[in-house]
Amino acid sequence: MAEFDIEAAKDEVKRWYWWGIPTFFRCDWNEDPAASDIALIGVPHSSGNGSTERDQHLGPRAVRHISALYRRSHGRFGITPWDLARISDAGDVPLPEAMVNDVCVEHIEAFAQRFQAAGTRLVSMGGDHAITGPLVKACAGAHSRLTGGQKVALVHFDSHTDTLMHLPHWLGARRSAAHWGAYLVEEGHVDAHRSTQIGIRPNVGTPGSLNTSEQLGYRIIGMDEVEEIGPRGVIAALRERIGDAPVYITFDLDSLDPCDAPGASNLEPGYPGLRIGEAVRILQGLRGLNVVGGDVVCLIPTKDNPNGITAQNAMVLMFEMVALMADYLAARR
Fold first, then answer.
1. Interatomic CA distance for residues 105 and 287, integer angstroms
2. What is the 3-state secondary structure (H, E, C) of 33-88?
3. Helix (H) or strand (E) run with residue 333 in it
4. Which of 47-51, 159-163, 196-200, 319-323 has the lowest mean pLDDT?
5. Domains in the chain and their CATH numbers?
6. What is the pTM of this model?
7. In sequence order, which residues have a C-beta less than 8 Å from that of residue 45 and are 6 or more positions away?
């Protein structure tokens, strides 16, 4: 039998997504919060939005599977994030009471707080949009090592504002996918006057339903305005508003046009959404800002196309957040 160099063979085939143990972008697996500059985690949570499909908890596994095929270098930035920072897959948030949203929210915050205490930035794959509340609470505000005690400027891509502070609960969930955008402002973690909601569809809610965000101080760049000013105009508006504040990015996949994200919750047909190329350009326009955390939410693999296009686009968005963080960290060494 010819000699078979197993380690060399592993190195040769590791780029193929169907080989090996799936991790985000083929990262090493390391659950120690202090072992990474940027940790990638899954938040397999579905009980924060009871009005839509429940399979959002399957999102992290789908993206781990498919992200092994993605290229590791960033063409427009001219960098390879993994060469600039320690980046690991740090596993999933354990949610033993997964059907009880308001308990899960506490567990997510406790899990994420360990990374903030170590000075490690998180890029999280959800999970429904209720996960953003505890993730931001963990990384921003008076206690935060990552932000130096500052609130964050929120860059929020969505078809919906998620600031329904006038509702006591969402089908029983009080820290739900519909509430987090309000309570993060009220509790001192988000500076709404530096924050922007991008991609809100003109047909959502009832007349006046955007007022909750405006009352809190958010700037809304709805899809009608996005179409008018384009990605460059959106970037200029974001950067002017953010200034020198630390940034948290949350990306709800339903802000994308349904043709790019059919496997998302709360699809809004009839009014075009962001195309994935536009979203990528806008994210890249944040280069140089201090992005301390980010998440991608509302992937439902069980309603995705057979080629997993929604999972693939979720992967792309996650990669762009990683690149922004790694580039920022490298520039300041």
1. 30
2. HHHCCEEEEEECCCCCCCCCCCHHHHHHHHHHHHHCCCCCCECCCCECHHHHCCEE
3. none
4. 47-51
5. 33-331 (3.40.800.10)
6. 0.95
7. 56, 57, 93, 95, 98, 101, 104, 108, 126, 127, 128, 130, 131
